[in-house]
């Protein structure tokens, strides 16, 4: 009787061990897929923010260039309309620069201030320009020239990294591959630009 029980025990244990191994493999595969999906999603969000930084630099350049070259009130108003795009793209860009600061080892407060301060300073300098109508004053022209030069440099820096479009490249972006040094350089340029406007 005892030998009969032993013969059933070993096969049952083997079946249970096999089922447990299959379950562990399935759960581990699911965990890997979920982790991969999360990295892809985060990388996609970073790519969107990076594209917003490029749009912000383009809008800054177009706005400053348009205001500087405007010959009449109509062309000044057309250039002034471009200023509306600076707010949303600047806010998204700030998110990318914040992320770059965190990954560089800055505290949350330092990263937030470092990213928010230059964008806010630029916005503050640009807000009053063109609102009084007519040709920009000499001081405003100087501000626009400074912003135009800084925006061109920022465009060139941001163009050195191609925004990803595929899942694997999104995961690489989430891992910090290639874009972090570019974002840090862009942040330094924005900070220098804001300091030059004071």
Distance between the termini: 95 Å
Q: Over the alpha carbons, how many angstroms does the gyration radius reach?
A: 27 Å
How many helices in DSSP terms?
Answer: 7
Stretches with pLDDT under 50, minimum 5 residues: none
Q: Give the fraction of residues assigned to helices.
A: over 70%
Order of helices and strands: HHHHHHH
The amount of beta strand, in percent, is: under 5%
Largest sheet: none
Summarize the SSE layout with pairings.
Elements lengths: L1 H68 L3 H9 L4 H18 L4 H19 L11 H21 L8 H8 L4 H18 L2
Task: Provide an overview of this structure.
This protein has 198 residues and is mostly helical. It contains seven helices and no strands. The protein has helices at residues 2-69, 73-81, 86-103, 108-126, 138-158, 167-174, 179-196. Helix 1 (2-69) packs across helix 3 (86-103). The protein is elongated, with a radius of gyration of 27 Å.
């Amino acid at each position: 009787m005892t030998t009969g029980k032993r013969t059933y025990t070993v096969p049952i244990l083997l079946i249970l061990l096999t089922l447990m191994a299959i379950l562990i493999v399935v759960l581990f595969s699911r965990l890997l897929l979920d982790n991969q999906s999360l990295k892809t999603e985060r990388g996609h969000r970073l790519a969107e923010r990076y594209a917003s930084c490029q749009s912000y630099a383009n809008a800054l350049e177009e706005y400053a260039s348009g205001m500087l070259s405007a010959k009449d009130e109509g062309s000044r108003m057309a250039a002034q309309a471009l200023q509306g795009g600076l707010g949303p793209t600047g806010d998204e860009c700030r998110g990318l620069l914040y992320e770059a600061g965190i990954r560089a080892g800055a505290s949350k407060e330092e990263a937030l201030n470092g990213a928010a301060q230059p964008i806010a300073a630029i916005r503050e300098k640009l807000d009053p320009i063109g609102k009084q109508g007519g040709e920009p004053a000499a001081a405003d022209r100087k501000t626009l020239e400074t912003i135009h030069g800084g925006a061109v440099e920022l465009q060139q820096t941001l163009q050195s990294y191609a925004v990803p479009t595929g899942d694997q490249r999104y995961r690489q972006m989430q891992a910090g591959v290639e874009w972090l040094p570019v974002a840090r350089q862009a942040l330094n340029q924005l900070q220098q630009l804001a300091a030059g406007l004071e």
